[in-house]
Amino acid sequence: MPDRDSPLRDAQRSAGANGHVPVQTPPIIDPNPEVTMPDEPVDELSVELRAGGVAETAPGHLVGSAQPLGVDVSGPGPVSTAPAPSGSTPKRPGDRIFSALASGSGLFIVVLVVLVGAFLLWKAIPAIGDDKTNFLTSRIWSVGDRANSFGIAGLLWTTVLISVFAMVVAVPIAVGIALFVTHYAPARLAKPVAAVIDLLAAIPSIIYGIWGIAILAPHLTGVQNGLSSGLGWIPLFKHHNNAVGTVFDGGVVLAIMILPIITSISREVFQRTPRQNIEAALALGSTRWEMIQLAVLPYGRPGVVSGAMLGLGRALGETIAITIIVSTAGNGAPFDASLFGKGNTFASQIATGGDALFAHPGPFIAAGLVLFVLTFLVNAAARAVVNRKTVS
Amino acid sequence: MAKRIDVSDVNIYYGKFLAVSDVNLTIQPRSVTAFIGPSGCGKSTVLRTLNRMHEVIAGARVEGTVALDGEDIYGAGVDPVDVRRTIGMVFQRPNPFPTMSIYDNVVAGLKLGSKKISKSELDGVVESSLRSANLWDEVRNRLSKPGSGLSGGQQQRLCIARAIAVKPQVLLMDEPCSALDPISTLAIEDLIQELKTKYTIVIVTHNMQQAARVSERTAFFNLAGIGKPGQMVEIDDTDKIFSNPADKRTEDYISGRFG
What we know:
The structure holds two protein chains of two kinds.
Chain A: H1 7-15, H2 41-50, H3 53-57, H4 68-74, H5 93-130, E1 141-142, E2 149-150, H6 153-184, H7 187-200, H8 205-231, H9 247-271, H10 275-283, H11 288-317, H12 320-325, H13 346-351, H14 356-359, H15 361-387
Chain B: E1 5-14, E2 17-27, E3 32-36, H1 43-49, E4 60-68, E5 71-72, H2 80-86, E6 87-90, H3 102-107, H4 119-132, H5 136-139, H6 152-165, E7 170-174, H7 182-195, E8 200-204, H8 208-214, E9 217-223, E10 230-237, H9 238-243, H10 248-254
Parallel strand pairs in B: 3-8, 3-9, 6-7, 7-8
Antiparallel strand pairs in B: 1-2, 1-4, 4-5, 9-10
Helix pairs in contact in B: 4-6, 6-7
């Protein structure tokens, strides 16, 4: 302890701090001087009068002047800053209009989703009732003027397989790109790279489709043959010699298509990693990669998950590129778990419906309903993952 | 395992902007050195050059030498990662890793460099570090709970435990109590008194009484003038700084006649 008869004493006085620790709080500092205002009736009155435009145009409000705080509160237009009694917060016109607009928009989207769901159910249920085969387990799709036989087993498998495959390919790459852009690349490189990735999202899916089947797919046969010669004993990689237009081809193109959305959402969250978490990791002596594991990835995880789910949602519904790239397996073809097989997704089956789509929309709408439910479940799962507490 | 730090002719830049100029000071092992001075004078900046944390800001750089027991930490071939493992740091705001448990927070530094350490050894370090940080009794039954669930003062002590778990030579503290209430502040100050028997401690503080209470040596920083870089005015024994400082500017500052 330094000498008490020292400049320290002055410091104590002027800084309003106390000598021997903290237990006594300095009385000088008033946490919020404005709070004292209502204690002075004169001030209150003058506040009221200053807000006087209201009182003049609507003298009736002055009746309440025995309770000055209440007066302005009930009036329209700009009112006094005096705290309102709890429970009777006034609504100003701007607030009212904006809140109506906001609630209306919120309500609109809910109603819209409900209406879409209701429409699908309304059209799908009779069609499923008329189905000559089991809707859930059949692999046949025969819709025409005669009795309809249709099942979604094949569609469901192909849709899920191709989308999950695309996601498994895209997520690590997207996270890698996002980390590169946010934590590795020099600033002058980061911006262009990010812009190029975003540009991928601007390419129409028909272009992806043409490019995928005409240019990419022939190059992928080698990869497919290689994978299946090594891992062919796993049903997922069962051998299909030199097949072109496979689920694998479609999945790779889908992966490229969903890359931008996953990348840009991951990039956003990685960029927002709190500085203090990053510095905590670095100050412990972590390398850049260790810092990313300690600070960036745990913070960004929910963002990556929601980006991945948005990507999956897009993949599930992607139509034209898949329709162009993936060949159909043939009606009622036996189940094939392989990535190197062929098939139809919900979307491509509907898109290739042709005249039947208009003559007998029911079966297609039933397929659409299943896709709708599937997407819904994916979103719900994503929400659950994002909301889950990260520490058990 | 405490080391001495010699700072000589250090200029610290943010890009082209010279933030602090010409710092020369020596920090003695097994003692507490306090940095005081007005806001924006570069105390924290100087502190951050002592473990090469300054350079994590884009464009930031340092000229001069900072020697840890004679070895320049800015020398060619010195890895800043190794420097930071030797010189620990505690920040202004408690910053435990939010997604990690108390236990994982303490051992976070130990697991770096892909070292494999047995569970029993980790358990031992967790207990001894938390005991050293005076936090063990409060958290021993909830080590698997998130570190972010603790109070601010407990979080700060958790951060201190995390910093000392890796057995650093030096502990840098950047206003460790500024976000804490008086009781927690007292707990941290007591802790600093205990830690200085083992570590070299440098603490930045805005609270002059705190500097007077905890430190043996005090360095006073201020701005050379408006628009000019920060500088170190003097460093001396704390008693002397607060009773009879050599420099008029120091006296003005601690007596409240500053600026």
